[in-house]
Amino acid sequence: MDYSVAASVGDTGSVSEKISVVSGQQLNLVIKPDGPARSVKGYLVFQSAAAKTAVDIPQKSLLAAAVFALPVFAEKTDKAVPVERKLVLQEFEYTDQDGDGIYAANIRVPVVAGEYEVFTVIEYVDPEMGTRQVRMTAVIDPEGYVYELNNGKETRIPRAQVSIYRLNSASGAYELWPAKEYQQQNPQTTGVSGAYSFLVPVGSYYIAVGAPGYETYKGEPFDVAEGSGVHQNIEMHAVGGWLKLFDWKTLVIAIVALLLLYNFYRDRRRSRLAGYNKRTV
Questions:
Q1: Using H for helix, E for strand and C for coil, what is the string for 182-207?
Q2: 8 A C-beta contact, residue 103 and residue 33
Q3: Cα(118)–Cα(91) distance, rounded to whole angstroms?
Q4: Which of 47, 57, 93, 94 is deepest in the core (most CB within 10 A)?
Q5: Which residues cross the membrane (predicted)?
Q6: For 182-238, how does the pLDDT look when each residue is reduced to its tens digit (9 = 90+)?
C-alpha cells in the first residue's frame, strides 16, 4: 500500500518518520537493524489530539503495506526510552521469523483521531553499538459517518453501503476504487456508529451511499492532493420522509377523523336521497 510518508523535523530539531493512517486498521511495521540484535521492542504512545507543527520532508512512498523504519533515523541512547511519563497504549515485540535480519510487528491503529508515536528500541549484541531507538509519528485520520436528521439531532445509520469511486484518467470515467490493492474494503458497510473510512492515494473521487429505506446519495467529485483519509459526514434522506413529520398517534387520529367525516357525508347524502324520493312519490 502507498502510505503518505514524510520525514518530520520537530521544533526541537529531532527527526522522525511521519505517516498518515486510518483509524482502527492494522499497521505492519518492519525494520532492519544495522547488525545482530538481542531484542527489538516497540511502544505505541499517545502524543496529542491534534497535529503538532513540524516541517515535512516527503520521501518515496512505501510499498507492500509495510512501514520501513529507516536506520538513518536511529538515535543512539544510553537512557531508557522516555515513555514513563507518556500514555503507553501498546507494548510489543518485533520478530525475525525467517532469520534474515528483518524484524516485523503488526499492531492495530487506535480508533481515536490524533497523533501517536511509535518508539522502536533496538538492543544490539555488540556492546559498542549499544541501544538505539527509532521514532515514527502516526497521524490518524478521523472516520466519516452516515446519518440522518431527526428533529435537529443526528441519528447514525447502520447497514449503509459506502462506496468510493476514482477517476480513471485514461478513460475519463469514474470507477469503483480497487481498495483490496490497498488492504481496505470498498464498498464498506457501516455499523451502529455509521462510521466508514478510506485512505486513498492522489486522485479525483466521489462517494456514493445506499441504505434500506433511504434515497441513494451521490456526492460531488473532490480531489485528494496527497494520500490521505476521506472522512466526510454524509446526511441521508428517508424515502417518503414527509411521513416522519407525524407520529403514529397523530396518523391514527387523522385516519379516524377522515372516517368520521366520510360517514357523516355518507349519512347526509342518504338523508337527502331519502327526502328526494319521498317528494317524488
A1: HCCCCCEECCCCCEECEEECCEEEEE
A2: yes
A3: 10
A4: 94
A5: 246-265
A6: 778 899 999 998 988 887 888 999 999 999 999 999 999 999 876 566 778 999 999
Question: Is 257 contained in some domain?
Answer: no
User: Whole-angstrom Cα distance, residue 119 to residue 84?
Assistant: 12
Question: By the 8 A CB rule, do 95 and 104 touch?
Answer: yes
Q: How many Cβ atoms from other residues are within 10 Å of residue 103's Cβ?
A: 23
Tell me the CATH number at 203: 2.60.40.180
Q: pLDDT-based confidence at 136, cuts 50/70/90?
A: confident
> Residue 102 corresponds to which amino acid?
I
pLDDT tens, position by position, 39-75: 999 998 887 765 443 333 333 333 333 344 444 455 6
In a domain, 206, yes or no: yes
Q: Cell 470507477: give the residue.
A: 175
**Are 136 and 28 part of one and the same domain?**
yes
Q: Count of CB atoms within 10 A of residue 70's CB? A: 16
End-of-domain residue from the set 75, 108, 141? 141
Longest dimension (CA), the chain: 127
Q: Are residues 14 and 136 located together in one domain of the fold? A: yes
Task: Quote the pTM value.
Answer: 0.53
- Is the confidence at residue 30, as pLDDT, over 70? yes
